Amino acid sequence: MKANLESATDHMMDWMKAYKPDSTDIKYFEVELQKVSDMKKIFDAVSKESQEKLKNF
Fold first, then answer.
1. What pTM was estimated for this model as a whole?
2. How far apart are CA 25 and CA 21, in angstroms?
3. How much is the pLDDT for 39?
4. What is the dihedral of CA 19, 23, 28, 29, to 10 degrees?
5. Would you place residue 3 in the very low, low, confident or very high pLDDT band (cuts 50, 70, 90)?
């Protein structure tokens, strides 16, 4: 679980470092939106995993 959370966080940090908010390219933002959607899925999965493993505590 810890490794999955760290991986998700590292992935988000890498994306944030590479993000270019000043871009005017619509295609760039479409690709970035997909990346954010993918990151959300990863975080949702890690959240579900942690809730399952920690529900008894």
1. 0.82
2. 10
3. 96
4. 80
5. very high
Task: Determine the Cα–Cα distance for residues 9 and 34; give it in Å rounded to an integer.
Answer: 17
**pLDDT, the chain, mean:** 95
Q: 5: number of CA atoms within 13 Å, CB side?
A: 7
Exposed/middle/buried for 37, CB within 10 Å: 0-12, 13-18, 19+? exposed
Within the chain, where are the H helices? 2-18, 26-54
pLDDT at 57: 86
Cβ contacts of 40 within 8 Å, gap of 6 or more: none
